[in-house]
Design brief:
Helices cover 79% and strands 0% of the residues. With 211 residues, the chain is an all-alpha fold.
Length: 211
């Protein structure tokens, strides 16, 4: 599913708007996070090499290196989320006329739901890491680009919250409630840490801009 990143924005949006099973909310969340992280890297690019920021250049370059890896991970997760959802989409179409068919469908569905929940959970983890980096870019990056760090944080918050919806829609249907609870609890913990961080970044950006 790596081909999603090779499509034009128009093609991606057209497919997102269609009845095709993928891309969906998980892929859209991953893309939002990747764009948010790219904006953080842009802040870094506009900072390094500037005499005014020479004292923090090494730190900003380190942030940029980490941002490149997180962005690549989020881009890959667009395809990984689609690949994880494909078995679930297929499972919904399995026959259920006989007891044997129903048992088979239930087993396949359970495994597919587990995979479909894990992909957006990975998106949440990556979006959280992106927010940590954006906090650094907002603090150390060029003041001329601080608004871009804020936009990046807003997009990564959207990625975080959007992916959480996708975790929970799948765990809600799982029969293994212990496994479902573990996935949901991790999603809730990630949200509890990183949603306030996104708020903090955005408030600092507003304060830096003033007015």
């Amino acid at each position: 599913m790596a081909e999603f990143m090779q499509r034009t924005l128009q093609e991606f949006n057209d497919e997102l708007a269609s009845k095709a099973p993928v891309p969906g909310g998980g892929g859209a969340s991953a893309l939002a996070g990747a764009i948010g992280m790219a904006l953080g890297a842009m802040v870094g690019s506009l900072t390094v090499g500037k005499k005014k920021y020479a004292a923090v250049e090494e730190e900003v370059r380190a942030l940029m290196d980490r941002a490149a890896a997180v962005r690549a991970r989020l881009e890959a997760l667009i395809g990984e989320d689609a690949a994880a959802f494909a078995p679930l989409a297929a499972a919904y179409g399995l026959p259920k006329e006989t007891e044997e068919q129903r048992a088979h469908k239930a087993a396949v569905m359970e495994q597919a739901l587990l995979g479909a929940a894990q992909a957006p959970l990975a998106i949440m983890r990556a979006a959280g890491e992106a927010l940590e980096l954006l906090a650094g870019f907002a603090q150390k990056g060029s003041a001329l680009a601080v608004s871009d760090a804020g936009v990046g944080a807003a997009l990564c918050r959207a990625a975080l919250e959007g992916a959480e919806f996708n975790v929970r829609i799948n765990t809600a249907a799982m029969k293994d409630r212990a496994a479902a609870r573990a996935l949901s609890e991790e999603a809730g913990a990630l949200l509890a840490v990183y949603r306030p961080l996104s708020d903090e970044i955005c408030e600092k950006v507003r304060a830096a801009i003033g007015q």
